[in-house]
Design goal:
ornithine carbamoyltransferase; 2 domains; Rossmann fold; five-stranded parallel sheet; 372 residues; EC 2.1.3.3; alpha/beta; disordered N terminus; amino acid binding; arginine biosynthesis; 14 helices; 13% strand; ornithine carbamoyltransferase activity
């Protein structure tokens, strides 16, 4: 899509491996489905296995000095339902404007964003960088060797330095504590681009995709088939905000973090953990999967292929889900492993609209934390 040249805005992206793995109003108002109405009408990414990740000490609201309105976007359940739906509604509005070719909305003009990447990612980098550019900003990438946060330089120092240069920070890291520390010491908003514990930007994109294709999030049945990783944790944290029926079908020993499961259950959502994907998918609105071995787990890939036998999402499993079930995958996919070509290329696959929505959901998140 075409984009006008930016003037003066600057975005910085940085990456740092860690040795510790823990657990101006919008105009014009384009016609769109009211997300708030859709919500009331109905009702971790690329992380390590739950056994290797413990929920953060502050699973809700990373603290941010007990501020009622978080300056950062670290966990979905840091926000209430109305705020999450407001962000999704804004995403639909801005998406419609971008798709129409309208480039008059430039809320990030003159603004700078630093993006810290300890884990490389095509989708995260391009979606943030392009989205920020289309709304007037400029992105600069800093890879894993540029900062080495926590090794060459302490996280608190990185946070303060980058805050002096930029209006907003985004980080994609391994240890969840790194994003908490970054947010603690940064004086500008921090967005969680992924940790081993959760991936809130991905789930916001997923929620946006569900609104577009199903019309609601609340009271839907979402069935995740595979490893109980950071994507699963993110779905559970969304379920702590918006009531839904979430099922994780995974092999024994690969269940999601128990404390995070309880957070969702205590909020009123129906949460099931099972080892039977065939039974789990029945009546699903969405069947969701992800790679079995995430970044940092590739040495376990062959072992996991054996353990996860029977958990491949194929045409037969989608047929068991029913005619109205959509397939989602956060990508990248290992075709023929956790998902088949036939399933991912089927008419009911919304994997690629889902991928595009990363940019639109993140645009709305950035607008929210910047108050634009």
């Amino acid at each position: 899509m075409a984009a006008t040249a930016i003037s003066g805005a600057h975005l910085v992206l940085s990456s740092t491996p860690t040795t510790t793995r823990q657990s101006p109003p919008l105009h014009p108002r384009a016609a769109r489905v009211s997300v708030a109405a859709a919500a009331s009408a109905g009702g971790a990414r690329r992380g390590v296995a739950a056994s290797a990740v413990s929920s953060p000490s502050v699973a809700s609201s990373a603290g941010k000095d007990a501020k009622q309105v978080p300056k950062d976007f670290l966990h979905i359940n840091d926000f209430d339902k109305d705020t999450i739906m407001k962000i999704l509604n804004r995403a639909m509005e801005v998406k419609a404007m971008i798709k129409s070719g309208d480039r008059s909305f430039q809320p990030f003009k003159g603004k700078s964003m630093a993006m810290i990447f300890a884990k490389p990612s095509m989708r995260t980098r391009v979606s943030f960088e392009t989205g920020f550019f289309l709304l007037g900003g400029h992105a600069v990438y800093l890879g894993p060797d540029d900062i080495q946060m926590g090794k060459r330089e302490e996280t608190r120092d990185v946070a303060r330095v980058l805050s002096g240069y930029n209006d907003i920070l985004m980080a994609r890291v391994f240890a969840h504590q790194d994003i908490l520390d970054l947010a603690k010491y940064a004086s500008v908003p921090v967005i969680n681009g992924l940790t081993d514990y959760n991936h809130p930007c991905q789930i916001m994109a997923d929620a946006l995709t569900m609104l577009e294709h199903i019309g609601r999030i609340e009271n839907t049945k979402v069935v995740y088939v595979g490893d109980g990783n950071n994507i699963v944790h993110s779905w559970l944290l969304l379920a702590a905000v918006i009531p839904l029926h979430f099922v994780c079908a995974c092999p024994k020993g690969f269940e999601p973090d128990a404390k995070t499961v309880e957070i969702a259950r205590n909020a009123g959502s129906k949460i099931e953990i099972t080892n039977d994907p065939k039974e789990a998918v029945k009546g699903a609105d969405v069947v969701y999967t992800d790679v079995w071995a995430s970044m940092g787990q590739k040495e376990e890939a062959e072992y996991r292929k054996k353990v996860f036998q029977g958990f491949t999402v194929d045409e037969a499993l989608m047929e068991m889900a029913g005619p109205n079930a959509f397939l989602m995958h956060c990508l990248p996919a290992e075709r023929g492993i956790e998902v088949t070509d036939g399933a991912i290329e089927a008419p009911n696959s919304i994997v690629f609209p889902q991928a595009e929505n990363r940019m639109h959901a993140q645009n709305a998140i950035m607008l929210h934390v910047l108050g634009a």
